[in-house]
Design goal:
The structure holds two protein chains of two kinds.
Chain A (H helix, E strand, L loop, with lengths): L8 E4 L5 E6 L11 E6 L6 E4 L13 E6 L2 E6 L8 E8 L4 E3 L3 E5 L1
Parallel strand pairs in A: 1-9
Antiparallel strand pairs in A: 2-6, 3-4, 3-7, 5-6, 7-8, 7-9
Chain B lengths: L2 E5 L2 E3 L5 E8 L7 E7 L5 E7 L6 E3 L7 E6 L4 E6 L8 E9 L2 E5 L3 E5 L2
Parallel strand pairs in B: 2-11
Antiparallel strand pairs in B: 1-3, 3-8, 4-5, 4-9, 5-6, 7-8, 9-10, 9-11
Classes of the chains: A mainly beta, B mainly beta.
Chain lengths: ~110, ~120
C-alpha cells in the first residue's frame, strides 16, 4: 500500500491561514470518510487533531478544520500561532491496512 | 487519565529479537482495537500492525509480516509486539495507539528500537 502524498513543507505568518493537502486514491482517501490528521511536535508523540475528514476531538481548537474533495483531503489551520509549528500527517483507512502521508512540516514565519 | 506507556525498546543486533510492551490505563482496554506505528529517525509515521479487541485478529504491514507478532492480554491491559529477525530498517521509535473506530485517538510516548551491530 503506497503512502499518501503530502507537500514536504508549508509556511505562513502568525494570524494567517495555511492549507495542507493529502492526496490518495479511490481506494483510500476517495473511497470513504475515514481520513484523519495528526500533529507532532519535535520529540513528542503524534496527537489526533481531525478524524473522519472534518471532525475535531474535544480540546482541539476550531482553528483546525478538515475537508475532502475526490481523492484529496485538506487540513486548514487558521489564525496561525507559534505553537502550530509542527509536523502534520494525514492517514486513511484502506479496508485492511492503514496508510499515512509522508508528513508536512509547517513553519510559522 | 487515559494513558499508554510503551517499554522494552533497546539496542539489538541484526537478526535478533525484542519484545515491546504497552501498558494501558484509564479506559476499558478490552473494548478497543489497538495499533503499533513506527517512525524511523527523521522520517514519517508508518503503520505496523493492528489487533482487534479480543486479540483474535491481527493484520500487519508487508514489511513486518512473518517477523512480528502482535498480541494482547486483556486481564493485564497490556499489548505486546514480538519482533524477530530484526533488520537495520526496523530501527525506529515504536508507538502504540488506541484505535477509535478508524483513527488513532490516543498515543503512547514511544519506545526506541535500534538494530545495529
Amino acid at each position: 500500500q503506497s503512502a499518501l502524498t503530502q507537500p514536504p513543507s508549508a509556511s505562513g505568518s502568525p494570524g494567517q491561514s495555511v492549507a495542507i493537502s493529502c492526496t490518495g486514491t479511490s481506494s483510500d482517501v476517495g473511497g470513504h470518510n475515514y481520513v484523519s490528521w495528526y500533529q507532532q511536535h519535535p520529540g513528542k508523540a503524534p496527537k489526533l487533531i481531525i478524524y473522519e475528514v472534518n471532525k475535531r476531538p474535544s480540546g482541539v481548537p476550531d482553528r483546525f478544520s478538515g475537508s475532502k474533495s475526490g481523492n484529496t483531503a485538506s487540513l486548514t489551520v487558521s489564525g496561525l500561532q507559534a505553537d502550530d509549528e509542527a509536523d502534520y500527517y494525514c492517514s486513511s483507512y484502506t479496508g485492511s491496512p492503514w496508510v499515512f502521508g509522508g508528513g508536512t512540516k509547517l513553519t510559522v514565519l | 487519565e487515559v494513558q499508554l506507556v510503551e517499554s522494552g525498546g533497546g539496542l539489538v543486533q541484526p537478526g535478533g529479537s525484542l519484545r515491546l510492551s504497552c501498558a494501558a490505563s484509564g479506559f476499558t482496554f478490552r473494548d478497543y482495537w489497538m495499533h503499533w506505528v513506527r517512525q524511523a529517525p527523521g522520517k514519517g509515521l508508518v503503520w505496523v500492525s493492528r489487533i482487534d479487541s479480543d486479540g483474535r485478529s491481527t493484520i500487519y504491514a508487508d514489511s513486518v509480516q512473518g517477523r512480528f507478532t502482535f498480541s494482547r492480554d486483556n486481564v493485564k491491559n497490556t499489548l505486546y509486539l514480538q519482533m524477530n529477525s530484526l533488520r537495520a530498517e526496523d530501527t525506529a521509535v515504536y508507538y502504540c495507539a488506541r484505535g477509535d473506530y478508524y483513527h488513532m485517538g490516543v498515543w503512547g510516548q514511544g519506545t526506541t528500537v535500534t538494530v545495529s551491530s
